[in-house]
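worker-3 :: picked Tyrosine decarboxylase
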Amino acid sequence: MDNSSGFPVLSQVQPGYLRDMLPDSAPDHPEPLKELLDDVSKKIIPGLTHWQSPSYFAYYASSTSVAGFLGEMLRQDNEKVGKTSLSQLVVYASDQTHSSFRKACLIGGIHEENIRLLKTDSSTNYGMPPKSVEEAISSDLAEGFIPFFICATVGTTSSAAVDPLVPLGKIAKNYGIWMHVDAAYAGNACICPEFRKYIDGVENADSININAHKWLFANQTCSPLWVKDRYSLINALKTNPEYLEYKVSKRNEVVNYKDWQISLSRRFRSLKLWMVLRLYGAENLRNFIRDHVNLARHFEDYVAQDAHFEVVTTRYFSLVCFRLVPVDGDEDKCNERNRELLATVNSTGQIFISHTVLSGKFILRFAVGAPLTEEKHVTEAWRIIQKHASKFIHKKKY
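worker-3 :: tokens ->
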């Protein structure tokens, strides 16, 4: 950005200037785009340092281009822990927890044998059993290990299962363990009052995240993270090289997010979420989520009315887990049949569904979440599934 545009290269406003200029919550109803853009110009831009200015000579430049922009369009710290050998640290999650949990543990230096993925089953709708967590912690303590992290999930990837936050939070508190809540998918639904029951107990968590790009119109990536005690992150990750020193950092007058993550640079992800909240309004976003949940309920009704299919586990949000039922109790052949049905349906190119495995059963997943999905798309999807399922249903003994 050229200086002739009238903007200083280095922002001239004081830290915290924006706090009093913004409302406490998102608007319930949409606001005009012009009003939003005026706010961007008057409130946001004055707080920016213009890294693309030809007069920017401070750090290594972060280059950009029209081509690059178009390409993007297309497409713990515990002080106890600080004095402890990594081989003693143990983490807990369920066998339904997202695979990135294991990856994050390995990156963090946790030994693979110290990652406890506790077994779930249909009796808890694949939620993490608190009794199993407490038993595992007690056993590890007796062996001289140090339990320090529990990852609970609200809306697992496989079946949108919900871990019971209230008892898990009490366990974490009793043992002085950090509890994180991964609400990447279903946390978005909690903007609707009727779904907030699924995060009861979140007040006992130390951190929680959602993926606003999953269900709140904020295109990838946009993952808000809340931390109860920010200094746990800061103390673990802060670095203070001379070339990054500035007056306000020494006076603690600004939150410096370089100390909240591994990388130094950060994209301005919050801007797109702010724009979504302004241009759609909270009530429209709630209705958008409710529509998807109702469409999933509509599909679930189709499944329930066909004796050749079954809904496998409780539907909480907009994911339906279902399958062709076994014949004569033969689960192996049933798994094979459902696997073939999935491949056949997806090979048509007309719809795309996915699968998971729950309690050894091959399960089909129907997840409603695309912004343009309407009832006619759900009805057509069921027609296609039924059409191709008939090939397997009418096979004698498979």
